Amino acid sequence: MNLKQLHYFVAILDARSFTRAAEHLGVAQPALGQQIRKLEDEHGVRLLRRHSRGVEPTEAGTLLLDHARRIIKQAEEAAAALRDFSALPRGRLNLGLTTMMSGMLAGPLIRRAAQELPGVQVCIVEEMSSVLMEWVAEERLQIALAFNVASAPGLRWEPVLQESLYFVESAEQGKASGGTITFAEVATHPLVVPASPHSIRALIEEKSIEANVSLNIVYEVHAVSTVRDLVSQHMAATVMPYGAARQEIEAGKLIAKRIVDPDVKRDLFFIHTERRSLSKAELALKAMLLDMLDGEMRRSDEWAPISDRQASIAALQRRSTPLGRGWFAV
After folding, report:
1. Which residues, in sequence order, are CB contacts of 293 under 8 Å at separation 6+?
2. Residues with Cβ < 8 Å from 289, sequence gap 6 or more?
3. SS3 labels along the chain
4. Cα 215 to chain center, whole Å?
5. 3-state secondary structure string, 139-207?
6. CA angle 127, 289, 164 (to 5 degrees)
7. Which tens digits make up the pLDDT trace of 244-299?
8. Strand 254-260 to 180-182 pairing
9. What's the burial of 322, exposed, middle or buried (CB within 10 Å: 0-12/13-18/19+)?
10. 138-175: pLDDT as tens digits
11. Which of 16, 26, 71, 330 has its CA 20 to 30 A from that of 136?
């Protein structure tokens, strides 16, 4: 069996006629019939049935037709992918980023892509990790960076970096920013945190069980800006990434301490569909993203490499759940 035979077979059934298929393909009708007979002889089945109205498939022919269409499509996609790699990266790419990652990467990424990938139009979509994951599964996004989402069929997850979470409170007199705080100490403070099923909420609840302490949650707020406002107004403290309050911390309005005993960290994943390989443009953008994240890691203690990638994937798979039901949001 070869692609030529499959093309001929599909063309005959599309035209419902050997004569019309031969004209469309530009081949002699006897040659067309010979290729179909070879295909039938090789597999010991009859594929086509002729009658007064033309040609129709047998049961075996119907089975082969479905496979043939998919094989031809995959071959065409493979040829297109090879042509793509022979040229400069080009095309429109929809990249999904969480709000925090977008604030950190979007501007620098667009500027760098304009210089290094002039043929690629990068469209950044900012959403929660749960939404980004679903949109990659639906192929509305080609690639995404997301935190601690649950595993799902059809998606490929590549651990990238690990981010530490911080205890953040108002900068009252006598308090100093920096250093560490135990999780047990964090639990004694009134906290404003996202409502379930946000990934940070799920993470700190897991850690509270691990540390055998109870959290003192007084407010539930999803908007990061509102969380910062409540903390600044001495209403509560919170747990969040350092980058989510960097400006206020560096301005001396808030203070931050890294949480230890146990550490509170979340993994960042690069996500794309398993249904196809990444294009040349997608690979180029991925390499750019990973390079920028590596630079962030070198500049800041907030990020660290993931030492055990298999453990990271295993933890992700333990959260496996059907799409749209109970996804952890970030």
Report:
1. 105, 160, 161, 268, 303
2. 105, 109, 145, 270
3. CCHHHHHHHHHHHHHCCHHHHHHHHCCCHHHHHHHHHHHHHHHCCCCEEEECCEEEECHHHHHHHHHHHHHHHHHHHHHHHHHHHHCCCCEEEEEEECHHHHHHHHHHHHHHHHHHCCCEEEEEEECCHHHHHHHHHCCCCCEEEEECCCCCCCEEEEEEEEEEEEEEEECCCCCCCCCEEEHHHHHCCCEEECCCCEHHHHHHHHHHHHHCCCCCEEEECCCHHHHHHHHHCCCCEEEEEHHHHHHHHHCCCEEEEEEECCCCEEEEEEEEECCCCCCHHHHHHHHHHHHHHHHHHHHCCCEEECCCHHHHHHHHHHCCCCCCCCCCEC
4. 32
5. CCCCEEEEECCCCCCCEEEEEEEEEEEEEEEECCCCCCCCCEEEHHHHHCCCEEECCCCEHHHHHHHHH
6. 70
7. 898 899 999 999 999 999 999 989 999 999 888 888 889 999 999 999 999 988 88
8. parallel
9. exposed
10. 989 999 999 876 667 788 889 999 999 999 999 986 68
11. 71
What gap in Å lies between CA 261 and CA 275, rounded to an integer?
Answer: 41
CB proximity list for 178: less than 8 A, separation 6 or greater: 255, 256, 257
Tokens of 262: 């146990």
Residue 152 is encoded by which pair of tokens? 């799902």
Tell me the two tokens of residue 283. Answer: 């690979």
pTM score over 0.90: no
Residue-level pLDDT at 323:
40
Going by C-alpha positions, the residue among 225, 288, 279, 231 that lies closest to residue 77 is 279
Locate 100 and state its tokens: 């925090």
Instruction: Give the span between the Cα atoms of 32 and 190, in whole angstroms.
Output: 79
**Region 94-117 average pLDDT:** 92
> Quick check: 167 and 186 in contact, CB under 8 A?
yes
Q: Which residue has the tokens 């031809």?
A: 72
309 forms beta bridges with: none
